[in-house]
Design goal:
Layout lengths: L1 E4 L2 E8 L2 E9 L2 H17 L9 H15 L2 H21 L1
Antiparallel strand pairs: 1-2, 2-3
Helix pairs in contact: 2-3
Length: 93
């Protein structure tokens, strides 16, 4: 389904019980319908899914982000708190 919010067309559809919606970023309805068709194709073929990173990779990425976004004390707390969780996660595998 294509609908207009303001001047821009948005799409919404359901596939396998999951609702997908988003902005096409376009003001022309025919072009927006083509974008919706592409999104549906991506969902059906599975091209939109990313593999989830393993836990240790996720923690590393989070700590890198945290260092840039938080105060030093907050980042240190995250870093220190993540060590026991990483150890426990490795022993569970």
């Amino acid at each position: 389904m294509i609908y207009k919010r303001g001047n821009v067309y948005w799409f919404q559809f359901v596939y396998n019980g999951v609702r997908y919606r988003g902005s096409t970023g376009l003001t022309h309805k025919a072009e927006a319908m083509r974008v919706e068709a592409r999104k549906k194709t991506e969902v059906i073929t599975g091209k939109t899914r990313k593999e989830a990173p393993d836990f240790s990779t996720f923690v590393e990425e989070f700590l890198t982000w945290s260092q840039a976004q938080n105060k030093a004390s907050t980042h240190k707390r995250y870093r220190v708190s993540s060590k026991p969780v990483l150890r426990q996660n490795l022993t569970c595998l």
